[in-house]
Amino acid sequence: MKTNLIKTFALVAALVGSSFAFAEDLGNWNVNDTVVIKKSTTHYLTGEEPSTWVYDKKHTIQQIGSKRFENGILLREIISWVGPDDITRPDGTSAQAEGANGKAAKANYAKADKANAADNQANASKAYSFGDWHVGDTVMVKPETKKYLTGEEPSEWVYGKKFTIQQLGTSTYPEGILIKEIISVVDANGIYRPYDQAQPAKQEEVKPQEEEKKEEVKPQEEEKKEEVKPQEEEKKEEVKPQEEEKKQEVKPQEEEKEEEVAKQHEKVRMQKHHRFSIGLRGGVASLMHNAPLMDNWKVGFDGILDLQYAYYFGAKEGKKVNHGIIVGLGVGYAQSPIRNGLNIDSTYNMGTYTVDYKINAQKVAERDGQIQIEVPLMYSLLTEKGFFLNVGPKFMMPVYTHYNQTISDEASIAATINDMGVTITNDPATGVIDMHSQKGQWGKGQAKINLMVTAELGWEWELKNGHALGVGVYGNYAPLNTYKHDPTLKNIVQVEADGTSNATVGYNSATDSYAKGMNYFDAGLKLVYHFQFPASKK
Q: Cβ(399)–Cβ(451) under 8 Å?
């Protein structure tokens, strides 16, 4: 209770005192002056007691006078009101000691400031090029600059303020100028050099360093509780909104840089840009043999390396979708099996006798594989958030085909001599089938071109280096294949007998023997890395 009464009396005294003359003339102080708080100052004009660390720090005058505190001075770093007698120069001198008298000093300052305004206007009308600027230069944003290079519009408070050049050129904007205090990239002719009037040192006025921020600018919430009563009217009239200050002026430099880079990369995806991609995909596959005597639909696998180029035309204004065309080359391997039991009836003449050969194979298995190349021509849809969809035709051609075949030892050959009514099984005279395994090439001499319909969809993420990583699913189906064969021409097992010697047994590929045609199919997962580059500078 006692403490509250003391604060109340202090507040009343401050309010009353602010309406009368102080020993120090208010006119001797100017906005942006660097000052320190006297240790004799026990209360702000609002009644709060200053924290102990406040006395040992330098502060900057942000505003002189207000509706509530006519003779008050607002200090920027602590957002608190003091009287003109409560502060002094950093060297310990009063404002009056700087000139013959405070009023004369103020008049001289106003005269110089008026001259500077003319010089500033002359400098702002000049045309500047990239070579005119250096890191560390003090600059101001031209009034006619309505957008940064990233597309955002500057806040109203940016105009008329002095800033520092932090970097010349970025990876996305080689001739852009990065401004330290607002972390934004501007054109070389979007800024101008202000008149170099003698002012307190920049370090004392702006204090952009991280170390000074930590020492001199306490967290906003703590400041509000200890030093400033939350006055909605004062915030609107005298102090910029705290949230805007945090976002645009007090944010840590590293966080600002990361956000700016992320925005720039995300915009590349919606701009006109070139894209070179390396992708790996794999999953299930089938050559889809159309073989009446064998099973058709057996699943194998494939693995493909994709090298692709894409051009995106740029999203229209207000849209969040970009459209492009993809071409490229794919190289990979695919295989799938066919298997079944089969029975074959063949008739041969043996001398004057007619012999019927019956071949029975309980288990025939063959795995066909191919090394293939693919040439896509696809439409691509890419959204601002990273979703992609690629669809279109693709040409696929096997450049090398092979098979691995096995016939079990349960197979047999039976020859019936019709005129004699005699049947001979697995005899040298009829041919003998043992456990059989062989390798070879199928479809020799044919150009087995597939016309496929393909689709890919998934998600991609922008990386810090400006490129992108994508993950998705794919599917290909070939409704048209040039592989054709007449299965009545030969059998998988061939018995040759001329009627004068023992019969011989030969073997063919099951695909070459029984497949009328083929259609390719595959589906699986795809991982892709995109190198992307803007097609033109903004």
A: no
